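Exercise: predict the fold of this chain.
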Amino acid sequence: MSDPVRIGLVGYGLGGRAFHAPLIASAPECALVGVLTRDADRRTQLAEDHPGVAAVDSLQALKDVGAEAVAVSSTTGTHTEVTEAALELGLHVVCDKPLAVDAATAEATVAKAEAAGLLLTTYQNRRWDSDFLTLREVLASGKLGEIFRFESRFERWAPGQPRVWWRSGLPPEEGGGVRLDLGTHLVDQALVLFGPVTSVYAESFIRRPGAAAEDDLAILLTHADGVVSHLYANTTSGDISRRFRVLGREGAYVVGGVDGQEDALRSGRTPASEGDAWGIEPVETWGHIVRGIEREVVATERGRWDTFYPAFAAAVRAGSPLPVDPREAVAVLRVLDAAATSAREHAVVPL
């Protein structure tokens, strides 16, 4: 596009610095015009990472430097406040997942955006993981036959670090815990693959001393089409080798490890620096279709986190579909709300 969408970024912690700013800056369809951060060290990092990009201290200041849209990468408990304030300023919004801490609040925010005629989407980047894109291709091929079970895991080994990544040092009402972090990705992927859910059962635990919210979560979803999803998020797992196991009547698809785009961004590599090599996974990480003792290697699709912001820009400029419909973000939170109820009451919750 000849007129890039001018995007301001709210927050320059791990999410803003590693997962949003490089992808915005790498997209020709977008221009990073400013970052809202009041922290002196992060302002120094911003100047080193993106020379010339303004550091500001308010949403109004982001608008004043030319932003027509904002990407919200503040802490989870502030997503609603920041998103709605941006909408009130007439800005389109990309909000990091989850859109809110519960479904009712998220639904009200979506209604606010619709009433204002503004675009609102949620940054569900894991829809463009290499392994997830590959799984979608495998399912579309029909090689597994009728699917009856989907197993998905985001498990980490950080037993002595209650505050890393998943913010389990924060209470749930402030967005702490794996349910509203890694669990958001797990549920979103399950709904994309297998559609609406009719019941939810969950178990959650606090395993690490000092954690204020769950760091060990298991969710069982029954989908309307009969598929059962088993979802696990854990930060105290000594075995982090598993990712997907999908069982069908004609075989299974199994893949381990985690998509490499996160590590690439953390190490300073970007779609702009890597070009066509971006998102390519090494052969030794590829998954397999398994039928008993038979194993068929499946080449892993290229990971495409780099397509999110160009798709958002196309929605702003040309009215194309948003990369993630905000109503889908509300549906994810309804499932996560039910998971919280289930774990608390030790009961199956119907939806």
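Check your answer against the key: The radius of gyration is 20 Å.
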